[in-house]
Amino acid sequence: MPADFNFKNYQESLAEGRLTAMICGKCGAYTTPPQGVCRLCGGTDTRLAEIDNKGTLRTFTIVRVGPEGTKPPYIVALVETKNGPWVMGNLLNIDPERTGPEIIGKSVDISSRVAQGDIYAIENIQSLTFTLA
Ligand SMILES: [Zn+2]
């Protein structure tokens, strides 16, 4: 992992509206959020890169019983970024009770918001959010 790509820097980038990743010098794949090695080949020759804030909704679930401090129902989605990595976050601005599989495959804009800390998190963090494009 590049020294300049860690969870703290990733969080700071999200707060500034940028989605950062690491690009692999061996295979060219992008990996985000930060982890120790390339998600595809396991390579460690990586450097910091910024990736596109657009993606495709691949799947989702509706949470009806959430952790303390949340207000279900809400949608947790998996999005394939334009650069390849899949990321998880909340799909906003859509009624969970009035949606279905028809939204799978739709284009989304990727952003983030502050998620309140709870009994499992020491502090507030930036959490990925998606909106249909
Ligand atoms: Zn690689």
TrEMBL record:
It comes from the Bacteria. Residues 50-109 form the ChsH2 C-terminal OB-fold domain. Pfam families: OB_ChsH2_C, zf-ChsH2. Gene3D superfamilies: 6.10.30.10. Residues 13-45 form the ChsH2 rubredoxin-like zinc ribbon domain. This is DUF35 domain-containing protein. The lineage of its organism: Bacteria, Pseudomonadati, Thermodesulfobacteriota, Desulfobacteria, Desulfobacterales.
